[in-house]
Amino acid sequence: MPGIDECLSEALAIxxxxxxxxxxxxxxxxxxxxxxxxxxxxxxxxxxxTEAARAVVEGGTFTAKESGRVPVExxxxxxxxxxxxxxxxxxxxxxxxxxYLWLDRSIANLAVARIGLQSIAERLVLV
Length: 127
Hints:
Distance between the termini: 11 Å
Shape: globular
Number of helices: 3
Structural class: alpha+beta
Strand content: 25-35%
Largest sheet: 5 strands, antiparallel
Radius of gyration: 14 Å
Number of strands: 5
Oligomer: single chain
Strand order of the largest sheet: 2-1-5-4-3
């Protein structure tokens, strides 16, 4: 089963992906990143995706946590010229981890990117 580096490399093969990262959203810690740096760098993007993840999960609007799992699968943010996909990962340890993709909107197909992100997330092994 692939680890962080291999999965991030696979993410770059998804059409339109500019950059990808794995982030611990409980702390904002960047666990790995590849590709172009969005905005002010991968660390800034990790902080921003952490805030987005927290806002969605802690807001309580979508559903309550059930059996210790995050009640959200993905967050999709559209911006002029780009898409931002955030996928919540299940881990075997007590941590909150997300996989983040930054895409060029003029090239990327949002549905294809989401399917690719889901496939990578299912195979990613976090030890």
